[in-house]
Amino acid sequence: MDSNTLQVLIAMVIYMAAVIVIGFVFAKKANANSENYFLGGRSLGPWVTAMSAEASDMSGWLLMGLPGVAYWCGVADAAWTAIGLAVGTYFNWLIVSKRLRRYSIKAGNAITLPDFFSNRFKEKKKVIMTLAALFILIFFTVYAASCFVTCGKLFSTLFGASYQSMVVVGAIFVLLYTILGGFLAESASDFMQSIVMIVALVSVVAIGVVNAGGFAAVIDNAGSIPGFLDFFGLADPVNANGQAIADVTAKALEADSSLAIQAVSENGVAIFGAKARPYGILTVFSMLAWGLGYFGMPQVLLRFMAIREEGELKRSRRIAMIWVIISLAVAVFIGIVGRVIAMTNPEALEGGLLLTNSDAENIFIQLSTSFLPPIIAGFVMAGILAATISSSDSYLLIAASAVAKNIYQGVAKKNASDKSVMTVSRITLLVIALIAMFLAFDENSVIFQIVSFAWAGFGATFGPLMLFSLFWKRTTRAGAIAGMVGGAGMVFLWKLVISTLGGVFAIYELLPAFIFSSICIVVISLLTKKPSEEIEEEFEAVKLGK
Are 446 and 358 in contact (CB under 8 A)? Predict the structure, then answer.
């Protein structure tokens, strides 16, 4: 290990030590009871609520996945996704946060999302609770896998170790930290990590622009690539045979992995097709649909439930929006800057050109290690680790609470003690982490693609149900069940079957699944007996702020 790598490692170790200290500080309070462990005793302030919600939401894909998309094929996909996320963030904080905070207390002081849905419909047979917990378990396991992929790519790129071993190291660290401190430690460290993330993003884009020749040079050079800066077109990377990489099938790649490598000219500059690929309005709506996912995202919704005062949510919304807009815009621009440097000065990039879609997600790492002093680069790399930890601990904790609190205590053993609930949750954490590690072992995994599937799963399964539960009194228990099952089922059906038909069917699965789930809720609710008087009175009380 050379001195530069050692400096990077030292900086990252300092950061990880700080995170562990936070875990120890909050361990005693977090482990006092299950409410503290899973929801922090509803004690979060507005700054921690806002920053931890966004840090846990964005994960490593903000620093690796999103810049990688922009680097690979230009602005369109990355920018429309970012716009959809920003709009979704705003409306989630604006229309959902207050009513959910109020309703979660009114509905039996619910401390998990399955608790809330089950209590909202006063169900005796815990069908909604069980289904919600199972869907959380499935999709958060996939989400955790995306975080472990990030750890594997980060550590293997920095230290030259095997990808799989680094996935294991990252998973062990996140697992130990989450078991130690619970929701309070997670939220406090997420606040710190959100600051590290935005500082890292701004630092890398600034140094990248300087080394690319300035802002004007970045725009001029990026604009010379057909479709790269178009909002309604895509740049078209081609392989060594002149074939668009987007047209290379999985079967062909399996037979000849060289097909995934872009052609390079004699001076090492990546080759793109002579014309931009079309980018229709349907694709734009497909990317904007990412914003719909927020209405069903447990890691964000739990922060709404956990804030200490409902009146502080307005301030939290403003803080969250400033952070989100800056972070998303800078992340997209990092991909653009990275592509310009790869075009104009490829020898400056340590590790060489990024020649596959999967490798493109390392552009943030490359810019950091190529142009920043090693010790500073180490702290910037901690930004990626921060994003990964802030998300994976949320995913693991919420999934564990779904099993321990909702299935074990809520269904299987209703008189279970707090101590036994905590034990089951920690066992569940270990099992989920092992499964997620297995899913993450493919080093050619693309973080953005993994996240997009899990995001669609949560958005379609819980998003429509959350909105109808909060704002439509006529929603019934049967409608809620139909909406969850219909939304989740359509995500799998569209992703694995319908989207393979291509054309208009190739849109992001969240959009059709969200619509289908909403239809299921409305139709089944209207066809079944209206909610009881008790449920309607509770709904009206929440609506009036009582």
Answer: yes
